[in-house]
Backbone:
């Protein structure tokens, strides 16, 4: 019975369309008969209009009927399984966290206002990258305990604190820049980077490379997108101090919100098995995670 109902559902549109085609053909034949029999100008005009409409309908319906009669794909009746994995929030967090790399744009108002040398400003970026790496190590530790959510909240607050404090920098101390941007922002962004990539990638054990690549693409695109936004704000009435506050608040909001969206897979989650491309003889070994002290 089920197969018959499926077959009926497939044939019903074809039959209905064929009936429409036959009716259009019949209307055209009736209009031709009226034209042959009638001599009244008004009746002939109405018949011509009806004949034109019937021919247009007939041609249109015939094309639709040909499409309906095309052979069906044998896979159309198969069941489809859609795989959805919880990797939301990572790309947004990576996009805002990557603004740290836009230092070549962010340093321009500082150089113009405080007359700091290029080497002094370059040292700040070096410190930021150093503490970015340290933040990555802290992120790995924090994501285990107390967990990735707390780690992202800490990352958001540190990053926001680093950027917003730049807005009140005095011009006589470049060391304050090193502490705010280099230490605080660098550490916070490093924590966020490690936690986001490790947590989201855990949902894609069979596609870790693709997942990490997409997240890093968002991280790198931040320089292009947010860097240009910051440059436009620097040149506007907003000014560079308020711009740094805006960037800091935006980073905090996005990363903290991402901490509630991103979730780690639990131990009962079942993932697709990795595809084996080649057979390689490997020695038996025990998988283990090592702590930084080990």
Residues:
């Amino acid at each position: 019975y089920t197969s018959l109902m499926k077959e009926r559902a497939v044939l019903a549109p074809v039959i209905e369309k064929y009936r429409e085609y036959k009716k259009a053909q019949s209307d055209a034949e009736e209009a031709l008969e009226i034209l042959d029999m009638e001599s009244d100008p008004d009746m002939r005009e109405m018949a011509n209009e009806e004949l034109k409409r019937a021919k247009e309908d007939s041609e249109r319906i015939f094309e639709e009927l040909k499409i309906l009669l095309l052979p069906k794909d044998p896979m159309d009746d198969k069941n489809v399984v859609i795989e959805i994995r919880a990797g939301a929030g990572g790309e947004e967090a990576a996009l805002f966290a990557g603004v740290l790399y836009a230092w070549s744009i962010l340093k321009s108002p500082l150089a113009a206002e405080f007359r700091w040398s290029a080497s002094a400003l370059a040292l700040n970026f070096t410190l930021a990258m150093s503490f970015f790496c340290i933040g990555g190590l802290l992120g790995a530790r924090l994501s285990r305990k107390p967990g990735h959510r707390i780690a992202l909240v800490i990352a958001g607050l540190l990053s926001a604190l680093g950027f917003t404090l730049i807005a009140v920098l005095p011009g006589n101390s470049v060391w304050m820049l090193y502490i705010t941007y280099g230490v605080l922002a660098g550490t916070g962004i490093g924590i966020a980077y490690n936690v986001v990539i490790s947590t989201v990638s855990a949902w894609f054990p069979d596609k870790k490379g693709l997942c990490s690549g997409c997240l890093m693409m968002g991280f790198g695109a931040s320089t292009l997108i947010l860097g240009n936004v910051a440059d436009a704000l620097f040149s506007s009435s907003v000014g560079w101090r308020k711009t740094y506050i805006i960037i800091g608040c935006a980073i905090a909001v996005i990363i903290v919100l991402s901490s509630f969206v991103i979730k780690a897979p639990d131990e009962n989650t079942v993932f697709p098995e990795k595809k084996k491309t080649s057979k390689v003889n490997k020695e038996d070994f025990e998988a283990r995670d090592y702590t930084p002290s080990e």
About this structure: The CA atoms of residues 29 and 51 lie 8 Å apart. The chain has a mean pLDDT of 81. DSSP finds nine helices and no strands in the chain. The radius of gyration is 33 Å.
